[in-house]
Design goal:
Layout: E1 2-10, H1 14-23, E2 27-39, E3 45-51, E4 54-62, E5 69-77, H2 82-87, E6 92-105, E7 108-115, E8 119-127, H3 132-145, H4 158-167
Antiparallel strand pairs: 1-5, 1-8, 2-3, 2-6, 3-4, 4-5, 6-7, 7-8
């Protein structure tokens, strides 16, 4: 399994964040339309990510209380509409749709997300390539140049935030 460090914050001003990103060494990669279908599983989270005509099943276990380290595994699916295939055998818990602007700073992904029904968020994902300390150092560089207030960090997936909104 791969390992990454994640952070999520509700965005008050996209303009402010874009200004910070533009003066940094982060580079714009692309804008992505994503649909994440979450399934009921015993441990961790399982979702099907649909993006640009591709289907990826993502299984992950995340530390929701600490620094949000995640162990994850990706499985590319092919064939005639994997989404329909899976809905016949797995119970769907939630569907999250978002428009994501992807930027990269070294090995850290910077996501500016507009999530249907929830609003705008910033997500950081630092992929561990060599060791956790190096990844955490790079992650902290991004937190610093974006001037993020870590006390505003949201330690829940979009799935959970959407469920809370629908039930509340």
């Amino acid at each position: 399994m791969a390992l990454n460090l994640e952070l999520k914050i509700k965005v008050d001003s996209r303009k402010y964040l874009l200004e910070k990103i533009n003066v940094s060494k982060a580079r714009y990669i692309k804008t992505i339309i994503q649909k994440d279908v979450y399934y009921n599983v015993g441990k961790g989270l399982l979702k099907l990510r649909i993006e640009d005509g591709t289907y990826t099943l993502i299984k992950y276990v995340r530390d929701e209380k600490g620094k949000r380290w995640s162990n994850y595994h990706l499985l590319k699916l092919i064939g005639e509409n994997p989404e329909n295939y899976l809905k016949d055998i797995l119970k769907i818990e939630a569907v999250v749709e978002k428009k994501r602007e992807l930027y990269m700073y070294k090995n850290t992904r910077i996501h500016l997300d507009n999530v249907k029904g929830l609003g705008n968020f910033l997500e950081l994902e630092s992929v561990v390539l060599k060791n956790r300390k190096e990844s955490e150092k790079e992650f902290n560089e991004v937190v610093k140049f974006l001037d993020l207030d870590l006390s505003r960090q949201i330690k829940a997936s979009y799935k959970i935030l959407l469920e809370q909104k629908l039930s509340g």
